[in-house]
Design goal:
The complex is a heterodimer.
Chain A lengths: L2 E10 L2 E11 L4 E5 L6 H8 L2 H11 L5 E9 L2 E2 L5 H6 L2 E4 L11 H8 L6 H14 L1 H5 L10 H14 L4 E5 L7 H16 L3 E6 L2 H7 L2 E6 L2 E6 L1 H6 L1 H8 L2
Parallel strand pairs in A: 3-8, 3-9, 6-7, 7-8
Antiparallel strand pairs in A: 1-2, 1-4, 4-5, 9-10
Helix pairs in contact in A: 4-7, 5-7
Chain B lengths: L1 H27 L6 H19 L3 H24 L6 H23 L13 E4 L2 E4 H23 L1 H11 L1 H6 L4 H23 L11 H14 L4 H21 L7 H15 L14
Antiparallel strand pairs in B: 1-2
Helix pairs in contact in B: 1-5, 1-6, 1-8, 1-9, 1-10, 2-3, 2-4, 2-8, 3-8, 5-6, 5-8, 6-8, 9-10, 9-11
Chain lengths: 249, 287
Amino acid sequence: MLLEIAHLNVRYEKAVLINDLSLHVDEGELVSLVGPNGAGKSTTLRAISGLVAWEREIKRRSAGGEIVLEGTVTFDGERIDQIPAHEIVRRGLVLCPERRRPFREMTVLENLMAGAYLLRDRQKCRGTLDKVYYLFPLLQQRSRQIAGTLSGGEQQMLAIGRAFMSDPKLLCIDEPSTGLAPLIRREVFDKISEISRLGITILLVEQEVGVVFQMAHRNYVLSSGKIIAEGTGQQLLADEVLRKTYLGL
Amino acid sequence: MNILITGLITGSMLALLAIGFSLIFGVARIVNIAHTAFYMVAAYCIYYLSVRVGLNPLLSMLTAVAAVTVLGLLVYKFLIDPIREHEGAVLIATIALAMVFQEVTLRLFTGDYRTVDFLITGFFTVGGVKVFYQQLLTFGVVLVTLGAVWFLLMKTRLGLAIRSMAEDREVANLMGMNESRLAMITLGISVALAGLTGAVLAPLTVLNPYMWMEPLIIMMAVVVLGGLGSIKGSFVAAFILGFTEALVVFLVPKGAFLKGSVALTIMILVLLIRPEGLFGVSFEEER
């Protein structure tokens, strides 16, 4: 098991965002996490990548609201739930955040190099950059362009490429298709499949259930911070109630 | 000609101050009101070392910059870091800090005006205006420093991390950048820049314990005009304000008294018309 989350709980003030969630991802898998808005999909990714703990620290220091984070996260045989976000990346768990979030003032190349911040070996960095350029030829053409001037689809490619530069063992991608035209979505999903075929384990959070169920090896359906179903796309779609109530299909 | 020279020098000094101020705000969201107080401390350090102790002026400048940087790091570690996420507290703490510096300086050196000797004496005349070699030297050092800062920010791994942290600290964390370490390094650079400004300006000005207030206000105006957190903006705005100030001082009767109000007027106008400034960064909403 590459990633194992056990009994994860996240509460912001009184609001329960994640309620006793357990899931696991095996090496080489493409696993999806689907569910309605506000189900806690993004929060799950933020919790395992250390951002919830980071936020909790800020709130604590600024005497802001209380954030509760409980449960264990094991990655590659090591507990990572007590480790700060910037150390988690080093271990190979990389998050490509929601809304893409490129460094808008920097060039495409600078964004990618920021992703490779921890890769101190020049040769390896160069090699990874070549892989990213191979996956996204467009990023090579645009390497000197300011990231803020890219289109939404291009920014998404950049965000994925930047995460790829961190040399992930597990790549978590949060809602890559949001706000993109159908054709571009298709392209983004194709790229994600391609990365998966390169042997990189992927945990994908998405709204677009139809496409994701075809791509992913396994899926978790999340609702109100709880996992309510797990299985292959076919298995989940066979469940009439689940399909109508939670998947909107 | 006088306007040009004064404008250039004031502008470049302001640029140094404002960039330092912007840097630490960008990376750690610290509004360091004491920024220019560090500049005053550096100037007094030089005065003490070169005039009272009789050290070589150049050596005393280097010592002063180093001392101020160490002082800044200590202050950061024990005063600012523990309250870093609490913006209001940081604001109050740094105001208090500036006043502490001012009062200590008053105690040690009294409120008398002090001067530091020129590093190199002599002048030449251009278009009927005396240009002191010291002015030229100051300007040169400032330009070189600005160039070095630019290189550091744009061409090095550390610079990339600083810019990433300034633009989106959450994502920077996700790239493995260590926030508290970067904040510390940036504060060091920021204070060193303030110290250096004090060092190169000291021979051109008169020292008094209140000398941090006026540049503080003008520097704030620069930062607001350039856009909070934007290095490029600080740079451009510094020269705009530097020249505006020179124009007002030389062309308006009794203009010297209007310096501060011009800066404040610009600041208010910018806030009314274009709050994000010339090159403002609209910060990604932090959740």
